[in-house]
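quick one, two chains, predict together pls
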Amino acid sequence: MTGTDTRKAAVVAFAQTDHVRAADGLSEVEMLLPVLREVLDRTGLSTGEIDFTCSGSSDYLAGRPFSFTMALDGVGAWPPISESHVEMDGAWALYEAWVKLLTGEADTALVYAWGKSSPGELPMVLTRQLDPYYLAPLWPDSVSLAALQARSVLDAGLADEEELAGIAARSRRAAEDNPHVRQRGPAARTAGGYLAAPLRAHDVPPVTDGAAAVVLAAGDAVDRLTDHPVWISGMDHRIEAHGLGVRDLTDSPSTRLAAERAGLFDPGAPPPDIAELHAPFTSQEVILRNALRLGEETVVNPSGGPLAANPVMAAGLVRIGEAAARLARGEGRRAVAHATSGPCLQHNLVAVLDTDGAAEGEPR
Amino acid sequence: MSTTATHRTARGSGKEPVAVVGVGQTKHVSARRDVSMAGLVREAAGRALRDAELTWADIDAVVIGKAPDFFEGVMMPELYLADALGAVGKPMLRVHTAGSVGGSTALVAANLVAARVHRTVLTVAFEKQSESNAMWGLSLPVPFQQPLLAGAGGFFAPHVRAYMRRTSAPEHIGALVAYKDRRNALKNPYAHLHEEDITLEKVRSSPMLWDPIRYSETCPSSDGACAMVLSDREGAARAPRPPAWVHGGAMRSEPTLFAGKDAVSPRAGSDCAADVYRQAGITDPRREIDAVEMYVPFSWYEPMWLENLGFAAEGEGWKLTESGATGLDGDLPVNPSGGVLSTNPIGASGMLRFAEAALQVRGLAGEHQVPGARRALGHAYGGGSQFFAMWLVGAEPPVS
């Protein structure tokens, strides 16, 4: 397991729950366990054969400290395993695992994430991640903050309400082919009033419980574990200022910079066939499309995206998993997957995936 | 083949050696009412940058760690701390691996340099325990845990008792550790507890909290932060002061509770140490390691970890403590900084161990410097003795 100067890592397996409104009667570890079994079964590996494990979750969804320690029981960490955890969306757990693979210290990694939003009032819970001195005491909920952002998008003329409704309708239509999501079907456009103007119910993601898992590999392990590796050709993430008042809410410079560093805009690189964007609100898709320079040739959120299922803390990892699974099935050759964290797209991760080159035996 | 990512890993083969070029910490106290959380972390980070003689602009990425978000009542506080840590426009990672988090955070940061993803990384860990009550923050509501298991001491006291039974260690060993560490803390200006009038008798006659753990054998609740600047070979060559080189680092985890778990000497701990020693080429830790900063929140964990980490044979750890070998003037100084028993901002406690190990091999530990320390171990653990993070740092660059 020595690092080489051109070491690359690949997504070799992905699994997710059938995401639901409320996984009542299931503990978090019970919700997670079948997904972990499924993703390991796809590679034929057991926990003990995985070199590194990393997960993402939040105590504030679980309502108790150290909630991830119980999830570890689902992994079966005995004999002891090399393991880490981020209090972030699982996409960042995947990032930590990817770095570990690049060092050469590991050839295989299990990444998982989960979230049960149903026990609490999610928009109110998310107020607790705001500046504790100046913002959180006002309890501005996540839907209202997203509405502020949507208003800036409309005011800037980047989209109109009709277009936002179209994004919702397209997402729900796409979701019809996805058995894992919870909101699908053609009746997307909601009549009736605003949830938080200018956002209507169709502009807002469904509260969702769910989990996801990915197996990464590098070096010789890739060929051993799959015939259809999906290479992570680049990955980067960037954070912006926390205060909404100091940011241009109609733009996502952190997404653009992460995409640039991940190689999305490399000269000569073809546009991605698929984009899986972690845009829980319709107006955020408009912002992300612009930041990622996506055109007509790219299919956006063929899975239905977070508007169809939004298991908080896992939804970003699902984007990477969905994009990789589609490439592995031959639905495209290059994809971009995006994950976000914080209010109004504060922190953004971009992964560029491809099936080119390395599969034909180029050095990696 | 696309040209991305690989261009950043093309500066050489194998892992990039990682150097600690800057260390900073706050003065740890029970309540830092003069600063916000942002002020607290910025103070430590600013000191680490000054030590490295670098500016915020020199930092490529920030890796931050802390223990449960409930302690301050802020969910994912890294979002709000991005500005204070100069992370805007940069990657920021937030690690949480329970009490071991300070150590894990440093290891995640080190890997970013080792993988050549970044060249210079700022890593920070903190806890502002005065924002809430850590003991009750650690006492989970029913049905997650049985009632009356108040705080970490309630969880660990039976394991200490089991150690005493297993090894026939005499009752006074714990007090020796507490007395030693609190005396060491008097030489560390950043330590929380400075008990000038401490005596062994005072430790031994302090109130019994969680039998067999007495009040003076427990860690305090602290507000504090620790930060380090990690860099590659070029960064180390430019550093104004001697760097500490990472010779080995590892994490190991095992479940909280299961039939057959050895809570006194968890296998995850011994496996983790063995991995670090293998990476660093250490075959006889007792002889080859000059100073140890280990996570001892309750006095008895010194002899317990001495055995778990391979410094003493099973059942012999307490004899090493009793002999005085772990004193600042002994042949295996343990927690020369005063350790967790003198300073415990939980999320930062692991990083303090890692940072103090680095200070020792840099020769910058001040009054609590172990003379001539060339190799030092930093150790952290967390959860129900189930998460372990360790690194071994040296004054010389790694050979490979």
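Confidence is low (pLDDT under 50) at residues 358-364 of chain A.
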